[in-house]
Amino acid sequence: MSIAALRSFPAVYGVKPSPRLQAPRGRPRHARLIRASSSVAVNGEVGLGNRSGKDDQEEDAVVKDKEQGGLEPMYDDGFGGVTVKDYFAAARELSKDDGGPPRWFCPVESGRPAVRDAPLLLFLPGTDGVGMGLILHHKSLGKAFEVRCLHIPVNDRTPFEGLLQIVEQSIKYEHELSPSKPIYIVGDSFGGCLALAVAARNPQIDLVLVLVNPATSFPKTSLQPILPLLEAMPSDLHVTVPYLLSFVMADPIKMAMVSIENNLSPPETLQKLSDSLTSLLPLLSELADIIPRDALLWKLKLLKAGAAYTNSRLHAVQAEVLLLASGKDNLLPSAEEADRLFKTLKNCRVRYFKDNGHTLLLEDGVNLLSVIKGANIYRRGRQRDFVTDYLPPTLNEFKKAFDEDHKLFHLALSPVMMSTLTNGKVVRGLAGIPDQGPVLFVGYHALMGIELSPLYEEFLREKNTVVRGMAHPMLFGSNFETSRQESSRFDTVSMYGGLPVTPINMYRLFERNQYVLLYPGGVREALHRKGEEYKLFWPDQPEFVRMAARFGVTVIPFGFVGEDDVLEMVLDYNDQKNIPFVREWIESINKETLRVRDSVKGEEGNQDVYIPALVPKVPGRFYYLFGKPIEMKGMNNVLRDRESANEVYLHIKTEVENAMSYLKRKREEDPYRSIAQRTLYQASWGVSAQVPTFEP
Q: Which UniProt keywords are given for this protein, alphabetically ordered (predicted)?
């Protein structure tokens, strides 16, 4: 989006509502849903508009299955294409007073949702009121939601209860239209108070609140001394207040970092940051135009009233809540407020951003859709469906995960992936993996699941395919979360296809021809004891073979080795059970954890969760071998005869063990098993070059 394009539109104007969005008769004018501009083009109808030509082609490119309404993995969500300068340009246009009341608008860049039955997402703005605080996220959110934003004109003086009525009337109307769908409300700062108040007054409506540094902590804000200063300050000096206020509200460095590529050299990054910061700082003074003195005084009083109203009704909030809190919020004590709300609200989860400021949604590195996906709160019905509600990783998410966050880890390990062709030949890469599902990968679960990240990356790079990993249900709950919960590996598991291991989930994935990853050894294998590396802890009964035969699934047994070259276990489960306070901790967390294998006897059924004490070693190398595909199509005897099913089950288990034996033997022949040799090779050929390995 260019600033020039933004300037070409008038400030805000309405058009005739479509039947879908028309407010009921008798509804106040401000409750009607209209289309606005500045960053939104008007194409004749309210709502999502009628787009054609190139835009439609781009949208069709990300739709993988029109019947399912799914998104293609690695699609371009557009995140990072808009900067904070676009926000200021849009806010400058929208702040021009048109004399109208508060209203809704639909950002054109959000487009049509690329998933069927996409839920509605309403954005409630912060103190500025212009409604463009979500501008960096419009396009990415627009793939999964119908996005609408509330605009409160700069000279509007609607009290808090009046704004509350506007939002409340809109959600009631939308709920009447789609009673089985949730309504998402993203409340930024002051908008967080509005969102909580609406939820408290409407517990019967299925609301999902995403609160960004909510202003419920306004009584403790550092702005309290500014109120008398503003009232006494001459109007010609008012320009200095928003300029100073901007540094309290936001981190200019993080704002300037938006859209700067992460793969630049340090000198290039510094130069880009310098240029971006130089162009951004003069814009901060424009807050004086966006929020004049009288408007700022009103907004601060509105904040005070809103915080008081909302805090008195927190006990009535039944909605699902995701709270995003900044650790360096100089405007509000957001971290401490997260602690309070986490304890107060009945169904609240927190994601903590320790290095960000108050205007979290305008700062670098925060992708709201990614946060929503990682926290497992995206759904299109009353309950989250882990199969159909899953949104695959975007190109930006993939780059952040594997070209930034995990880059050094994968570079140090230089994983070797091998697969087996139907004729039995072992080749490097994934050529032996079928291009179409359903496919079931069955293998060894390494210590702490350290084999997963390279596996996910390789399938996305080479096959452009998400492998849906069947995982312990505890990874998807909130029992062990805290009020300072940062985005974690659990969030990554969810984003890259993980879902709870249940027969019905596996059934539905096979039904949809998906790639499915199953570890029969489960937690017992991933949290094994000393000396148990590469040992399988599979239960006796064939848990998955019959279902695979029913759907004609291609089963691929695979082995993995390398954990013993990377980690050394210091204290295992047996050691920790002998330490009194640690034993009590293990017992307490396992009381709250869903038991998935209580019916299985012996060590295979001991699925106790604990955290082993580990010491890193000088990195060796990871090796994967995907065995010869086993076609289950036509194996009707497996469905009828338990003995036949057991034979296939034992065959698969033997193939996994053989694959690991092969890799342990062949890695001794790898001239590049040592990190020193790999480093020399990459120094000569570049870090992107594939490091050679043994001959299969």
A: Acyltransferase, Transferase
Which residue, 602, 573, 603, is CA-closest to 590? 573
Distance, CA of 41 to CA of 20 (rounded, Å):
19
What's the chain's Rg over C-alpha atoms?
A: 28
Name the CATH superfamily, with its identifier, for domain 84-375.
Alpha/Beta hydrolase fold, catalytic domain (3.40.50.1820)
Average pLDDT, rounded, for the chain: 82
| Apex 495 CA angle, 493 and 499, nearest 5 | 60
Helix spans in 233-292 (H): 240-249, 252-257, 266-284, 287-290
Secondary structure E strands in 601-686: 613-616, 623-626, 630-631
Distance (Å) of CA 268 to CA 262, 273, 365, 610: 10, 8, 19, 45
Instruction: Collapse the DSSP code of 642 into the 3-class scheme (helix H, G, I; strand E, B; otherwise coil) and give the result.
Output: helix
Task: Tell me the pTM.
Answer: 0.84
SS3 625: strand
Q: How far apart are CA 500 and CA 383, in angstroms?
A: 14
| Phi/psi at 539 (5° precision) | -70, 165
- d(Cα 355, Cα 565) in Å, to the nearest integer? 34
What does 26-67 look like in DSSP terms, one character per residue?
A: T--GGGSB----SS----SSSTT----THHHHHHHHHEEETT
pLDDT at 591: 81
CA angle (424 as vertex; 419, 426 as ends), nearest 5? 35
Q: Give, in order, the Cα–Cα distances in Å from 339 to each of 217, 323, 360.
A: 11, 10, 18
Domain boundaries of the chain, sorted by first residue: 84-375, 395-670
**262-271, 304-313, 615-624, 671-680: least confident range:** 262-271
DSSP single-letter state for residue 394: B
* CA nearest to 37, candidates 161, 115, 176, 151: 151
Cα 453 to Cα 376, 478, 492, distances in angstroms: 19, 23, 9
Contact yes or no for 82/1 (Cβ under 8 A): yes
How many other CB atoms are there within 10 angstroms of residue 525's CB atom? Answer: 24
> Residues 24, 29, 35, 38: what is their CA dihedral angle, to the nearest 10 degrees?
-170
Which of the two residues, 65 and 538, has the higher pLDDT score? 538
CB 15 within 8 A of CB 44: yes
Q: Tell me how far CA of residue 676 lies from CA of 212, 403, 673, 692, in angstroms.
A: 46, 22, 9, 14
Q: Which of 269-278, 321-330, 336-345, 560-569 has the lowest mean pLDDT?
A: 269-278
Best CA proximity match to 154, nearest among 39, 29, 297, 309: 297
- Do 242 and 230 contact (CB within 8 A), yes or no? no
